[in-house]
Amino acid sequence: MTRTRAAIALGMIATAIATIAGQSTVDERIRRIENGLVPPVILKGQPIPTSTLEARMRELKTPGASIAVFENGRIAWARGWGMADVADGRRVDPETRFQAASISKPVAAAVALALVSRGRMSLDEDINTYLTSWKLPDNEFTAKQKVTLRRLLSHTGGVTVSGFPGYASSAEVPTLVQILDGVKPANTPAVRVDIPVGSRWRYAGGGFEIVQLAIEDVTKKPFVETARELVLEPIGMSHSTFVQPIPAAHRNKAATAYRASGDPIPGRFHTYPEQAAAGLWTTPEDLARFAIAVEQMVSGKLPRPVMSRELATQMLKPVLNDYGLGLEVTGAGPETRFGHGGSNAGFRCLLTAFKETASGVVVMVNSDGGGPLLQPVVRAVAREYGWPGLAPIERTLGTADPSTYAEFAGRYEIPVRSPPVILLVETDGGKLIADAGGTRLELLPESATAFFALSADVRIEFVRDLSGKVTEARVWQGNAEQRAHRIQ
Fold it and tell me: Of 41, 72, 288, 391, which is least surrounded by CB within 10 A?
């Protein structure tokens, strides 16, 4: 063997060894993550409890999960666990499509901003300027400020309809205009302005449906085509589509949706004609590519950006309530993160990304019961990769007289959405329980009137009036505070 051929052979061997070593490191990291799920809250002075991904999936009757991790602008790994379809015996793999639910919103926002970048739309013009097939009715709440694209993308437009339940496979599907007017077969009310524009932040998927129609009216194309041309293809989201229902050619790669009981949703999944708000089919790896692209557009590193650097920066600039243009933005300095969560019938998902490093994680599951898996996976990944700001919160267990718990029991109204969220507080076997939207949390005492949960980053402090009657609950979810008035 000549010296040149020997050098080439040795180089190939070294490359193979490095590849095997690198893969081994990735596998070891994945093993530590899947065996090291930690709760959001831990008790001071007590060991940190851990659980495994597979055990929690069994407990929560969640058939499948898919995770993608990205670090410093590159996909580190993507992997699936469990079943995409139990009856067919089809396993989840990195190419299995899930419904992104509300993570559709930031992708749809990018489509709108791509049009703004091209001069086809403006962030601050009256949205009715761009609507030709339907108009958002003006009223006393639009007298001082008009509804604009910026307002709709940041949930400050004062419009109604928080979310959408989707349509069963056997149900008639409405047109977008029928959805906006609340006309049958639409299963949600009309989208209208019912509070002064810009007066407060209120989550409104209905606003993104106005954006969807505006995009269609401006481009004279279906929203799905414009999204594919301006965002999905340029970013390389090759396993993603806004087409609803998912095209027949991709159904064998789509995860089946399951109820919390473990039963599949009839017809496998719901259809969401509300594409901009909830209709994206995708994979964690594709959403990771999207997050990387957003950060690289902000830093000016993306060779062929889908929007200007200025507009990408505005996506990550909070307008109100830690929400920018289609994305939630929290933290400061190295801990600044952006992302979004999602909840469709039979699907739950979460995207978390660090602004300064283009690092983060996407988790998607195919069960209504799978929500409690998402944050623990994010925390486990953050522990493994040394990311800041995502460690479990340490609380000190205090004391309270259980005989006073009955005074806190009642119904409290949290006016963050329309209709408002109802917080139910009740006693059960000497314990204090909080229930909002079907999620029951045991509350542990921090003091005589302040309580916290272990299974979620939630704190509740009960407020008494001068007569000593409990009239209000201050509710913290993370750093966000809401004042809930007692209604019963």
Answer: 72
- Residue 2, both tokens: 């000549």
Its pTM stands at: 0.86
Do 413 and 297 lie in a common domain? Answer: no
Q: Is 124 exposed, middle or buried (0-12, 13-18, 19+ CB in 10 A)?
A: exposed
Both structure tokens of 61:
């009757």
Domain shared by 369 and 411, yes or no: no
Joined tokens for residue 319: 């307008």
Half-sphere exposure of 137 (CA within 13 A, CB side): 11
Residue 51 lies in a domain: no
Separation of alpha carbons 43 and 47, rounded Å: 8
| Cis preceding linkage at 419, omega within 30 | yes
> Residue 352 maps to which CATH number?
3.40.710.10
Distance CA 425, CA 444 (A): 13
Give the total residue count for the chain.
488
d(CA 336, CA 357): 10
In one-letter notation, the amino acid at residue 162 is S
Q: Phi first, then psi: what are they for 6, rounded to 5°?
A: -65, -40
Residue at 82: amino acid letter: G
- Least reliable range by pLDDT among 6-15, 96-105, 358-367, 388-397: 6-15
**161: which residues sit within 8 A by CB, 6+ positions away?**
188, 189, 190, 191, 204, 205, 206, 209, 418
**DSSP letters spanning 397-419:** -----GGGHHHH-EEEEETTSSS
Say if residues 240 and 229 touch (Cβ distance below 8 Å): no
Q: Which amino acid is at 43?
A: L
* DSSP state for residue 468 in the 8-state scheme: S
Domain that holds residue 466: 397-486
- pLDDT digits over 150-209, tens only? 999 999 999 999 999 999 999 999 999 999 999 999 999 999 999 999 999 999 999 999
Distance from C-alpha of 426 to C-alpha of 435, rounded to nearest angstrom: 8
Say if strands 410-414 and 281-282 run parallel, antiparallel, or are unpaired. unpaired
Is 50 part of a structural domain of the chain? no
Do 411 and 352 share a structural domain? no
